[in-house]
Design brief:
outer membrane lipoprotein receptor (LolB), chain A; 2 domains; 12 strands
């Protein structure tokens, strides 16, 4: 009888140990699977996006000695996009200066917004023209290569751009096809490239800049961003250039 009780007690202890063992394995599998899901989420960061925001770091090719106003110029550019429309914002110190490009292909809108303090201006371009600030007469030759690079989690291809008549002779660019923005370069000198620019240099408003994508965020974008807001005064391209030059000179003094 005693042996039977001992045997039952032994079997119960053994069963408890087995349950604990299986529980440990089960939770271990859950934890491992969780890490796998997290890992997959990171690896899938380069998914094909049709809506979101790209944040670029701005570096200036000229030095502060060459151009004193560089110290006061913006360091970040943000592009919001949704299918075939985009809005790019370059904001100056403390929001005193805002330059915004809106390109809405379906609605045939190619506009530039300029805000200096509380003054708001808009310059409207034809849908086929380059946006404000670019050399309208620039002719480029693009040479594609097999070089690849990952930028902000996205696979990018390389190309060399040769400017045949411009302030810059050549520039190296990287672009990705993993972001679903249609006609991404229709209003800039790289119109031929079917991919979103992730790293590139350009002369914009007579200032040599380099843009490098640092973050790509998947987020809902309000379609109102791609419309002309109220309260802006229509001006010509020449007037807008003068306003920006006057602003730069006042900050460079």
């Amino acid at each position: 009888m005693g042996r039977t009780k001992k045997g039952i007690r032994f079997r119960r202890i053994k069963l408890r140990i087995m349950k604990q063992h299986f529980a440990s394995i089960f939770y271990g599998v859950l934890i491992f699977t969780g890490f796998q899901f997290l890992s997959c989420d990171e690896k899938n960061h380069g998914e094909f996006l049709t809506e979101g925001e790209i944040e670029y770091q701005i570096d200036y090719i000229d030095t502060a000695q060459d151009n004193p106003m560089i110290a006061f110029l913006p360091r970040v550019m943000k592009t919001s996009f949704k299918f075939n429309a985009s809005r790019t914002l370059i904001e100056g110190l403390f929001g005193t200066f805002k330059l915004t490009y809106i390109y809405n292909f379906p609605n045939k809108k190619n506009i530039t917004l300029l805000q200096i303090l509380d003054k708001k201006y808009v310059y409207k371009s034809d849908i086929d023209e380059m946006a404000f600030g670019y050399d309208q007469n620039a002719k480029v030759k693009i040479i594609y290569s097999d070089l690849e690079k990952k930028i902000a989690g996205y696979n990018c291809n390389h190309a060399t751009v040769i400017f045949e008549n411009g302030l810059v002779d050549t520039t190296e660019i990287f672009y990705t096809k993993e972001i679903g923005l249609m006609h991404p370069n229709y209003n800039n000198p790289f119109k031929e490239i079917e991919g979103v620019l992730m790293e590139f240099s350009v002369n914009l408003v007579e200032i040599n800049m380099k843009f490098s994508a640092k973050k790509v965020r998947k987020k809902k974008v309000d379609e109102k961003l791609f419309e002309l807001p109220q309260g802006y005064i229509n001006i010509s391209e020449k007037q807008m250039k003068k306003l920006i030059n006057d602003y730069n000179q006042s900050n460079g003094q």
